[in-house]
Amino acid sequence: MEDNESLKEMLVKLFTPFYTVITASNGQEGWEKTLSDHPHIVLSDVVMPEMSGTELCKRIKEQIETCHIPVVLLTAQTSTEHNLEGLRTGADDYITKPFNINILLSRCNNLVNNRIVLQEKFSQQPSATPQILATNPLDKELVDKAMNVIEQHLDNVDFNVNILAKEVGIARTKLFTKLKDITGQTPYEFIITIRLKRAALMLRENPELNVSEISDRLGFSSPRQFSRCFKEKYQVVPQAFRRNKKEDESDTDHGEEYIDE
């Protein structure tokens, strides 16, 4: 969002090779486009017609639909007080004009890429929890609610997205959009991921349970479906995942004996 046309054109040219760029010439228009388009990042001048950049940032960070979106503010104001005002409203970064375009691009890219890295970590690492993706209180509250509901229905083979949305207290379409924005996964994928993370924990910590029993306790329709989903997620079947755990422990024990000697 930038009301200076020449600067706006320069920023569009800078970011277009890397992003689909949506522009706005005032804060109100920027807010409306943020609500409708859910961009990966918002870059806004502080001094804007109709709504300032700091007020825009405040609105973005106070609404559940948009609070996850990183906001970078641009300003010609150099005082510490103005910087603090922007950061108090939840701005993720604050850059003073004139700025180095490579530094601006790098800092914006870092904010976007950091979320992608965390999403991949959550998806691929069995021990990573979804709370690492919740960067603000509103997102944390939603993720905690969704986790609590899923935990209560882990063994329910009929549990689905409709039940999740109803018990979380949010419309299905809004839940789809929000979870996708936060986690990079649809609600259905999120449910499966949480079940598979619990499965990985049970495979490692509950040797008395076989794969079929774990499948039943986690709401999979069959051991075959469970094994297929587990391999797609972690590139290893459940039995091999459990064996690897035993081998790791054996290697650790041997290492300790060698050190003691």
TrEMBL record:
Annotated region described as Disordered, given as residue ranges: 241-261
Pfam families, per database record: HTH_18, Response_reg
Compositionally biased spans, kind Basic and acidic residues: 245-261
Residue(s) carrying 4-aspartylphosphate: D45
Residue span, Response regulatory domain: 1-112
Domain HTH araC/xylS-type: from-to ranges: 144-244
InterPro entries reported in the protein's UniProt record: CheY-like_superfamily, Homeodomain-like_sf, HTH_AraC, Sig_transdc_resp-reg_receiver, Tscrpt_reg_AraC-type_HTH
Name by which UniProt lists this protein: DNA-binding response regulator
